[in-house]
Amino acid sequence: MADTALRLGAEQGARAVCVLVHGRGQSPEEMQSHILARLDAPDVAFVLPRAATGAWYAAKAVDPLTAETRTALGAALEQLAGDIAAARAAHPGLPLVLAGFSQGACLSLEYCFAGRPAPEALVAFTGCRVGVPADDRPRSLSPALPVYLTGSDADPWIPVTAFAEAVLELGQARAALRTDLFPGRGHEASDAEVAMLGRVLADLARQEKTGMAAPR
Description:
By secondary structure, this protein is an alpha/beta fold. The chain contains 5 helices and 7 strands; from the N terminus they run E-E-H-E-H-E-H-E-E-H-E-H. The chain has a 7-stranded mixed sheet, sandwiched between helices.
């Protein structure tokens, strides 16, 4: 597959890298306008992967895993792994944050639970595991990985129960976890969530351990 990721932000002089994954029916350009436009991160290089069909897999995240979904998910994970590896190669030695919104957040969670080379932090806006708890799913998260996971009780795509199940699995995997549930928030990334991504990026750009301490 041709490399169709969108690259933005700092190139020369970058101090951190962020791979930001869009949701179902979205594009890297929408992530640029909806999230990056609200960030003040002049020293961060951004890589925004692009799903060829506008979606990383066809099923809803909370549907039981089928052979078809596993195949599509595997292909999406390989594409994401390639984009992360390319970002690492282009910016050797820099800390990398993996972030995503909605289906992109779910894909990013699956990447980390699959035991692939870990980012320095994971920021998952409105995310959950793909599948249901009864499915055979990998649970090889890197211990102490800083993770920020958000959700809402009013989100039409990611039920609060699926958000809570992801919180439980992240806790059991010993992630350095902060979660925020935003009552009544629609299917969007709020200003508070975007501010947290900015805080994580700023911490890592200073070569500091992120405390994920931005206010709600």
